[in-house]
C-alpha cells in the first residue's frame, strides 16, 4: 500500500517562506516523478513543480521563488516556497507519478496541505 503524507503547510504573511514535505511509503519513490500540484478555491488543480531523478520543472508563476528537491534515501520530496504571495494560497498536493517498468504509469496522491498567505 502506497501512502503519501504531506506536512509543512500553514499560515504565513506575504513575503514569507514555507517548506512543504511529502514522504512516500512503499517502494515506488525512486521510480517516480514527484510533482507538487495546488488547487485554489474555485480553480482547477495546477502543476506547481516536478522533479525526476535528473530534471526539474516549474510553473511560470513560481519560477525563481519555489524550489523542488528530493531525497531518495528518505523517500521525501520538498517544496521550498519563498517570497510567498496571496495568490499562492491553495491546498497543495503531492503526487507520485510512478513509471512502472513495462506497465502503465500509476499516480498516487497525498491528502493535501493548506497554504494560506495573508496580505
Could you walk me through the main structural features you see in this protein, from its secondary elements to its overall organization?
Helices cover 0% and strands 53% of the residues. The protein is mainly beta and 119 residues long. The strands form two sheets. Strands 2, 4, 5, 6, 9, 10 and 11 form a seven-stranded mixed beta sheet that branches. The protein has a four-stranded antiparallel beta sheet with strand order 1-3-8-7, with no helix packed on it. A hairpin with a 4-residue loop joins strand 5 and strand 6. The chain contains no helices and eleven strands.
What features would you highlight for this structure?
single chain, 119 residues, mainly beta, 7-stranded mixed beta sheet, 4-stranded antiparallel beta sheet, elongated
Amino acid at each position: 500500500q502506497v501512502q503519501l503524507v504531506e506536512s509543512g503547510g500553514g499560515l504565513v504573511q506575504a513575503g514569507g517562506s514555507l517548506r512543504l514535505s511529502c514522504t512516500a511509503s512503499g517502494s515506488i519513490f525512486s521510480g517516480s516523478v514527484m510533482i507538487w500540484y495546488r488547487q485554489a478555491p474555485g480553480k482547477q488543480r495546477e502543476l506547481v513543480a516536478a522533479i525526476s531523478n535528473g530534471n526539474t520543472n516549474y510553473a511560470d508563476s513560481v519560477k525563481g521563488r519555489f524550489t523542488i528537491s528530493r531525497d531518495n534515501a528518505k523517500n521525501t520530496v520538498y517544496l521550498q516556497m519563498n517570497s510567498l504571495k496571496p495568490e499562492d494560497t491553495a491546498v497543495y498536493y503531492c503526487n507520485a507519478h510512478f513509471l512502472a517498468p513495462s506497465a502503465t504509469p500509476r499516480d498516487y496522491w497525498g491528502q493535501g496541505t493548506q497554504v494560506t498567505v495573508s496580505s
